[in-house]
Design brief:
By secondary structure, this protein is mainly β. The chain has one domain. The chain contains no helices and 9 strands. Strands 1-2-3-4-5-6-7-8-9 form a 9-stranded parallel β-sheet, with no helix packed on it. It is globular and about 40 Å long. It starts with a strand and ends with a strand.
């Protein structure tokens, strides 16, 4: 399924491949194999796939769950919970980069759980993972890690511990 422009879905959406380019509002759960969200997307329920790529602004009231999550927040983003094997939230240079100094950019999330986690521009209450790398512009209350933990000198991590 492909959305180019604007769309509103009242119920759950199940699509093997979902590509949103523009604005979309999902009133229920979103489930697929590969999901690409570009633009401004709102999801009232959970979002689940094998692979999810987000380039833009998202608001997810439920859990975002995928084996691989790659995210490039362009403005303020909110996701209640994230879970997956590989989770990457990074700044990627784009045409809209020149606006970023003037607009708040980043991800706010209650909790992130995964195996390999690399974060930039993220505010989180809890991050749990095997290998965790906290990069620039991050504010994390608690990091729990199994194997390795790295923190950029500019990042704020209030508490971290090996489990």
């Amino acid at each position: 399924m492909e959305v180019s422009g604007s769309a509103k879905f009242l119920d759950d959406v199940l699509a093997e491949n979902l590509h949103v380019s523009g604005n979309a509002k999902f009133g229920g759960k979103v489930k697929g194999t590969e999901i690409l969200l570009e633009g401004n997307v709102s999801v009232a329920g959970d979002c689940e796939a094998e692979e999810i790529n987000i380039h833009g602004t998202v608001k997810m009231e439920g859990e975002l769950n995928a084996e691989k999550i790659e995210m490039n927040p362009l403005w303020r983003c909110f996701i209640r919970e994230m879970g997956g094997q590989q989770i990457t939230v990074k700044k990627v240079n784009s045409i809209s980069s020149w606006l970023k100094p003037f607009t708040p950019t980043g991800l706010t999330v209650d909790s992130i759980e995964g195996d390999d986690i690399v974060l930039e521009m993220t505010t989180a209450k809890v991050v749990r993972g095997a290998r965790v790398k906290i990069g620039p512009k991050c504010e994390i209350n608690l990091v729990e890690y199994k194997d390795t933990f790295e923190k950029d000198s500019s990042a704020v991590v209030k508490e971290y511990r090996k489990i």
